[in-house]
Amino acid sequence: MEGSKSSGFDGTQQTMDNGEPRFEFRVFGTSLGMAEQCIRDIAPCDSITESREIYLLGHSIDYDKNVKIRRGRLELKRLIESHQGLQRWQPAGQWEFPVSFDAIEDIINSGCTPIPSRDLTTMLSKDDLLNLAAQPAGHLQRADVFKRRFRYTLPACRAEFVQLRVNGAAIESIAIESVDAQAILEVQSSLRLEDFENQSYPLALSRILGIKPLPREEDYG
C-alpha cells in the first residue's frame, strides 16, 4: 500500500504513508476470532509484531487526542474528521525525550484543570511525564498496553488483528484503515461489523480504566 493514492472527501489526492491522515474503524472485544478468520480468508498475514506502549489519558470529552509513549518517544495523533461512522486521524507530533513543556502543554492540560504554571521552556523527561500521570489530582492517567499485532494488506486498505493486555487485562481488537473511506466501509460490511461501535484507543482504554462510563451504564449495579 505504500505510495498508493486515493481521493479524500475533500477531493484532494493523498499519498498513504506514515505522515498522512487515515480513516480508521476499530472494534474491541474478547471473541473476535471469527472476524479475524474472515480477514485471513481474504489475505495472508504480512507480519506479526509485538510492542509495549504507554497511553496517557485525560478527561477530554471528545477523546480527540491519541497520546502514547512508544520506543522511548512521545507520539500524538489528532482526530480531524468523523464521517459515516469512521474516524480520520492525523499524526500530529513525535518527540524525543526530554521534551519541552511548551510543546506538550495542551496534552498535559487536556480536559483538566491546568497543572500549576511553570516555565514553558522546562524540559520534561519520560519519568517526569509519567510522574504527572501518577499524581492523585488525576490530570493524566496511564495505561500500560502490550500489543501483538497481526497485519494484513487488503484491497485499498490495511487490517490488523491485535491481542492486547491493558494493565494486565486481556482484550482483542480488529482495525481497518485507509485513506479511502469507501474501501473501509466495504471491508467492514464483508466482515459483518457494521453494527459494531467504532472505538479509538483513547475511548476504549478510558472505558476499561473507568475514566469514561460504559454505554448503557444504567444497566449495571
What does this entry look like structurally?
This protein is α+β, with helices and mostly antiparallel strands and 221 residues long. The protein has a domain at 17-94 and 141-211: mRNA Triphosphatase Cet1, Chain A (Alpha-Beta Barrel), CATH 3.20.100.20. It is 20% helix and 42% strand. The chain has helices at 33-42, 101-108, 126-133, 181-190, 201-208, and strands at residues 5-7, 13-15, 22-29, 45-57, 65-70, 73-83, 86-96, 99-100, 123-124, 141-154, 157-166, 169-178. The strands form three sheets. The chain has an eight-stranded antiparallel barrel with strand order 3-7-6-5-4-10-11-12, surrounded by four helices. The protein has a two-stranded antiparallel ribbon with strand order 1-2. The longest helix is centred in the first third of the chain and has 10 residues, at 33-42.
